[in-house]
Write a structure and sequence with these properties.
Layout lengths: L2 H29 L5 H39 L3 H8 L4 H55 L6 H27 L8 E5 H11 L1 H6 L3 E4 L5 E5 H17 L6 E8 L3 E8 L32 H11 L3 E7 L3 E9 L3
Parallel strand pairs: 2-4
Antiparallel strand pairs: 1-3, 4-5, 5-7, 6-7
Helix pairs in contact: 1-2, 2-3, 4-5, 5-8, 5-9, 6-8, 8-9
Length: about 325
């Protein structure tokens, strides 16, 4: 319904009142047996309709002007828009508007403080990550240059610690950046096999520690997405598989094509997830039941994976049975 229609509907009771007065006037004229009764009643009804129409039109135009000024005030509640709106409302509305201006100004100040606090937080996290990479790089250099001075078991332990630190630092950095308004994604054709092998190489110490068997069924398929974002998602899914692995752990990676998308699946044979927990595994901080394997869980890995999937416009699904593992699927829409 248009604004004019809404205005007419709003003032219809007044039209009915005017017509009722016209009917009463017609009754009086009829009782007085006036000779000019038909002419007078026509004049009365016509004058009432003209008066009503003019009144509704004026009120409609005033309402449009108030709405226009109010929208301008909401988009930019500065002094000029505030004064323009105050001049177009009644005294009672003016008092209410002053209260609204006070509330909006308080909200605006709080939002500015929150934005500044968020920027400080992001700068702190990124600075901390940058500083944390220095000792991590030193550890990597020592392991690369002095591998012959360490026993194989000790070297494997150090590699495990290095991979774990690298995973945690990367997770924190991406968590801080996901809320940033500035994005540096680069969408391009990405070779899945090459991208996945890089991730598996980064997580090799963690996978070796758990003695994972990797079954990579990927060929030379390509998808259109951001390479770093995809590798972050794959890393979080693999890390989740390592964390909740069982005896004789296995990781199977494959790709199949649906009519509308390429679907990458990462399946493990870990402890799995109970059916009543499955709908919530991508929620922030959700860790499921309180079994020993989940006591130290943060509930952030799959949450960040879902957030990154949303950023890259990818669909993420999960299937699981307790004791039989978890299968996570990433759907890549086909791009012409």
């Amino acid at each position: 319904m248009t604004q004019l229609g809404k205005t007419l509907k709003r003032y219809t009771p007044w039209l009915l009142l005017l017509l009722s007065l016209d009917a009463f006037s017609a009754l009086l004229l009829w009782l007085s047996a006036a000779q000019t009764f038909p002419f007078l009643i026509g004049i009365i009804v016509l004058a009432s309709l003209i008066l009503f129409s003019a009144t509704v039109l004026v009120l409609h135009l005033q309402g449009q002007r108030r709405r226009r000024l109010f929208r301008a005030f909401l988009s930019e509640p500065d002094a000029v828009n505030t004064e323009n709106l105050l001049g177009a409302v009644s005294q009672q509305e003016r008092e209410q508007l002053h209260l609204l201006v006070t509330v909006l100004e308080d909200k605006r100040c709080r939002m500015q403080e929150m934005e500044e606090s968020l920027r400080d937080y992001e700068e702190y996290v990124e600075g901390w990550v940058h500083e944390a990479k220095t000792p991590l790089s030193l550890l990597t250099m020592i392991l690369d240059n002095r591998a012959d001075e360490l026993s194989p078991s000790l070297q494997a332990r150090f590699n495990y610690v290095r991979s774990q630190l690298q995973k945690d630092i990367t997770q924190m950095l991406y968590y801080a950046r996901l809320g940033n308004s500035t994005k540096d994604y680069r969408f391009e054709a990405v070779g899945l096999k090459d991208a996945l092998e890089e991730v598996l190489e980064d997580y090799a110490p963690l996978l070796a520690e758990k003695q994972f068997h990797i079954e990579n069924r990927l060929a030379d398929e390509t998808v259109y997405t951001d390479r770093r974002g995809l590798q972050f998602m794959l890393g979080q899914i693999i890390s989740n598989a390592v964390k909740y692995s069982s005896a004789n752990p296995r990781l199977t990676l494959s790709l199949y094509r649906s009519p509308a998308a390429e679907v990458l699946t990462i399946a493990d044979n870990g402890i799995g997830i109970k059916s009543y927990d499955l709908p919530y595994i991508f929620q922030k901080g959700f860790t499921g039941d309180s079994t020993d394997s989940r006591k130290k869980a943060t509930g952030m890995g799959l949450y960040l994976t879902k957030m990154m999937a949303n950023e890259l416009h990818l669909q993420l699904t999960a299937e699981s049975q307790p004791g039989k593992g978890l299968t996570v699927s990433i759907l890549f829409p086909r791009v012409r």
